[in-house]
Amino acid sequence: MARKLDVPGVALITGAASGIGRATALSFVQGGCTKLALLDLNEAGLATTKELLEKAISSAGGTPEIGTYKCDVSSPESVASAYAGVKASFPRIDYAVHCAGIIVFAGASVDLSVDDFDRQNSINYRGLWLCSREAIKIMRTQALDSEAYPDNHISPVRAQRGAIVNISSGLAVYAQPNCPAYCGAKAGVLALTRCDALDYVADRIRVNAVLPGIVDSPMTNPNPEVRAWLEANPVQHSPMKRFGEPEEIADVAVFLASNKASLVTGASWSVDGGSLAGYT
């Protein structure tokens, strides 16, 4: 379970309809957040996530304020519209975690179609960039959280205008056969994270990335055959020899977004059961 946040502010999560995105929203709630903006193209999944969050917040004695926004991250217009809706509904965005992503096992480069390459990059890299820059635009206009939430007694040294966590992948650093577009897009996310961390550090906006390993989520395991192959192959090559749970990724993302990680920016945190350690 996520530790309590110093500032239970407003959290925005893309890809919130399932998997790591839904788990991240729940982790923010466990940390004390009652105000959340949920973005995804899957409206039915968003409705389910919202219902789960409302139940969790209400059972803890809080009053949920949850907005859902249909968003196609591959479309600049859709992203701009969704973030404008969030800005109109909430006073600020304290935390933004960008989880939207897909993976297509479409073969090695010679066998990979241009359409499949473009689709993965339009969501996993370009789409994340579109979302991150909208979040930064909003965060730059905000007061420091120490000023916005004076009753929380945030140290001026640890104060921030906002924090962004981008979900990348261990495959940004080491490769797996037959997914060059996915590996390339996730490596791009790491480069983007480092650049944004440097460009907006003076604005007191922190930007970090999480590198999950093989996670037991709908994106990674779309059917029993794929799950069985993953369990028999890459999972067995990881030191812990097990799938990660979405909640294990979510809790790290929430920590990195929080003031408890106030000296961390431009970092890439592996949450992969030791896989990266085994490759280096």
UniProtKB/TrEMBL annotation:
CDD domains for the chain: SDR_c
InterPro entries, A to Z: KR_dom (IPR057326), NAD(P)-bd_dom_sf (IPR036291), SDR_fam (IPR002347)
**SUPFAM superfamilies, per the entry:** NAD(P)-binding Rossmann-fold domains
Pfam families this protein is in? adh_short_C2 (PF13561)
Residues annotated as domain Ketoreductase: 9-232
Q: Which family does it belong to?
A: Belongs to the short-chain dehydrogenases/reductases (SDR) family.
Q: This chain belongs to which protein, by name?
A: Ketoreductase domain-containing protein
